[in-house]
Design brief:
Blueprint lengths: L7 E5 L4 H12 L3 E5 L14 H11 L4 E4 L17 H29 L2 E6 L13 H21 L4 E8 L6 H20 L9 H12 L10 E4 L7
Parallel strand pairs: 1-2, 1-3, 3-4, 4-5, 5-6
Helix pairs in contact: 1-6, 2-3, 3-4
Length: 237
């Protein structure tokens, strides 16, 4: 019998990279996994920053045991100085990361509270514990806010049998954006980045997915409110 047999999971941001790996890992552990992404095929194409679309999606899924809030990213942005930053650019990143997390957690919590059981995992970033390598202010801020949201939800939802935990990935080559970022550093910059990572290697989507599985299984019921850095020892707290 697998660890998640009979459980229903929702994983957001599954069009590529880390989200795909998380969905696959939970499915391999026995869960029925519902994938959702703004870039997905029609039936799973949901703008998670829009409350009505999120509510409709979760109504179609029914009861949820595991929610993984992975959707996010920099929405195609690069660094601009703070005095040149527009409201629209700031809002786009905050909505993609923080509002999506709130919307999905709010929707999933209803069935979890009713049944007295749930596992919620938030995918933040090392940028939320330190600074963003890209220099995108809204990204670092939203990722830090996800960590605060995790703690608050763990406190609020714990009495209902629901755990809420967070993962802060380090540098993972998981999609075209991170690949382009890596290539932009050049050989010297890449070597300098690896020098700051204890294991001297970048991460993989599967590294993050295995951390999610740890938080998602029923046996992890006394682990809540935690933020786990999976970064090869880049951030040593």
């Amino acid at each position: 019998m697998s660890e998640l047999d009979g459980r229903v999971a929702v994983v957001t941001g599954t069009a590529q990279g880390i989200g795909q790996a998380i969905a696959r890992t939970l499915r391999d552990a026995g869960a029925t996994v519902h994938e959702v992404d703004r870039a997905a095929p029609a039936e799973n194409n949901v703008d998670l920053s829009v409350t009505a679309e999120v509510e409709d999606f979760f109504a179609s899924v029914g009861d949820v045991d595991v929610l993984v809030n992975n959707a996010g990213g920099v929405t195609g942005q690069t660094h601009v100085p703070i005095d040149e930053l527009t409201d629209a650019a700031w809002d786009a990143v905050v909505d993609a990361n923080l509002r999506t997390t709130m919307n999905c957690t709010r929707a999933a919590a209803r069935s979890m509270k009713r049944r007295g059981y749930g596992r919620i995992v938030v995918i933040s970033s090392g940028a939320g514990r330190s600074v963003s390598l890209t220099g995108i202010q809204a990204y670092a801020s939203a990722k830090a806010a996800q960590i605060g949201f995790t703690r608050q939800m763990a406190h609020e939802l714990g009495p209902h049998g629901i755990t809420v935990n967070c993962i802060a990935p380090g540098f993972v080559l998981s999609n075209p954006t991170t690949q382009a970022q890596w290539e932009s550093y050049g050989p010297d910059g890449q070597a300098a980045l690896l020098e700051r990572i204890a294991v001297r290697a970048t991460g993989t989507p599967d590294d993050i997915a295995r951390g999610v599985l740890f938080f998602a299984v029923p046996a992890a019921g006394w682990v809540s409110g935690q933020t786990l850095s999976i970064d090869g020892g880049h951030s040593l707290f």
